[in-house]
Amino acid sequence: MNSENNNKTVFVGLSGGVDSAVSASLLKEQGFTVVGVFMKNWSGDDYGLQADCPWETDQADAEAVCKQIGIEFRSFNFEKEYRDKVVEYFFNEYSKGRTPNPDVMCNKEIKFKLFLEKAKDLGADLIATGHYAIRIDDSNGNPHMYKGVDNNKDQTYFLYNLTKEQLSRTLFPVGGLQKPEVRKLAEKFNLPNAKKPDSQGICFIGEINVLQFLMKRIPEKDGDIIDIDTKLKVGTHKGVFFHTIGQRGGLGIGGQETPYYVVDKDIENNILYVGHGHDHSAMLKQQIELENLHLINPDIEDSLLDDNSLSASIRYRHKPEEGMLIKEGNSYSFKFKKAQRAPSSGQSLVIYRDNECLGGGVIK
Q1: What pLDDT score does 57 carry?
Q2: Residues 114 and 202 in one domain
Q3: Could you tell me the CA-to-CA distances from 283 to 83, 241, 278, 311, 312 in Å, in that order?
Q4: What CATH number has the domain bearing residue 227?
Q5: Residue 124 sits in the same domain as residue 235
Q6: Do residues 254 and 144 both lie within one domain?
Q7: Least buried of 94, 138, 213, 217, by fewest C-beta within 10 Å?
Q8: Mean pLDDT over each residue of the chain, to the nearest integer
């Protein structure tokens, strides 16, 4: 136990899952005054989601964890903000034919903005989450974010939009642990959710069928599927909005010796282009344009532009590949040493130096 922690209050975002529960337990063990907070961001059966979004169960699990470890429990309601900032963004991006990442937006707008601000207003010195990431401060007190030690669980991809100020107020207690170690700690602390399975769904909305979700708001619009090599029509689709680059399933084109993949989209004319093979040349890109570039520490931008030691991920669990950040006028792009498969507009490209997450941008 660290005596310095005795005077610090940490609000821990509890999802009802095991990672955040162990985070709260570890912080209490370290001497912090810990408050567990469940963020209620979705309820009701809008878009037919109620059955897939058991928030009552998650909140009850979070409350039971607080009771078990002897900390205060609170619930914050961010439903309106979640719908305005995350769900509307999700629909708007898909309606433009892009493939958004709602988890990135949820962290940016809800967990590390609204939650942090409310926690500070209520007297918290810090917040903590169950994300698999590591924060280390340098000798000048500047915080840096590194990948979690469990490569299969690392979540820095979803956290690249944190500001230096937000990161300096955030703890990631399980970032230095492997997932099996977290499960063992959950049993050691006798946590009631120790054996609860991990959630796989959209942030706060559970395990939904994304296509059905989209079709609740975005009308179907029949269009042609064209073979990009032969220029022949090979099928029809219900809207380019519902498909993403690199997709194989759901095209309704059978009987192919080599499967078709989505390789391009003509949004304006509602045409879906497909090509044979997992690595068709039409979906390989070496230089990827970015918008909304964000750096955790904006002071390092100039040094990054000459840095040959960078790498980047174009999707979650994509192994970072070597490349360079390029600035032309006010526009940014990332040029990889090797062409990358199926970068999708609307997804995030996240930049690393070794294991440090430096920031990123949205693929244009």
Answers
A1: 86
A2: yes
A3: 33, 17, 9, 20, 18
A4: 2.30.30.280
A5: no
A6: no
A7: 138
A8: 91
> Do 229 and 123 belong to one domain?
no
Alpha-carbon distance of 135 to 24, in angstroms, equals 17
216 in a structural domain: no
Q: How many residues does the chain have?
A: 364
- Taking 90 as the threshold, does the pLDDT of residue 214 lie above it? no
CA distances, 321 to each of 85, 100, 147, 225, 339 (Å): 31, 21, 15, 31, 10
Distance of CA 330 to CAs 270, 285, 306, Å?
31, 21, 16
Residue 249 lies in a domain: yes
Per residue in 43-57, pLDDT tens?
A: 655 555 544 556 788
Instruction: Give, to the nearest 10 degrees, the angle between helix 179-188 and helix 18-29.
Output: 60
What tens digit of pLDDT does each residue of 307-322 get?
999 999 999 989 999 9
Is 255 within a domain? Answer: yes
Angle at 143 between CA 311 and CA 158, to 5 degrees: 50
Which residue segment(s) compose the domain that 352 sits in?
283-363
Confidence of residue 275 (pLDDT cuts 50, 70, 90): very high
| Token pair belonging to 327 | 């600035």
Q: Which residue has the tokens 């996240």?
A: 350
Backbone angles phi, psi at 170, to 5 degrees: -120, 140
Q: For residues 301 and 362, is the Cβ–Cβ distance under 8 A?
A: no
Would you say residue 118 lies in a domain? yes
Q: Which residues are catalytic?
A: 106, 203
The CATH number linked to 307 is: 2.40.30.10
Q: Give dist(CA 189, CA 175) in Å, integer.
A: 18
- Strand pairing class (223-227; 271-276): parallel
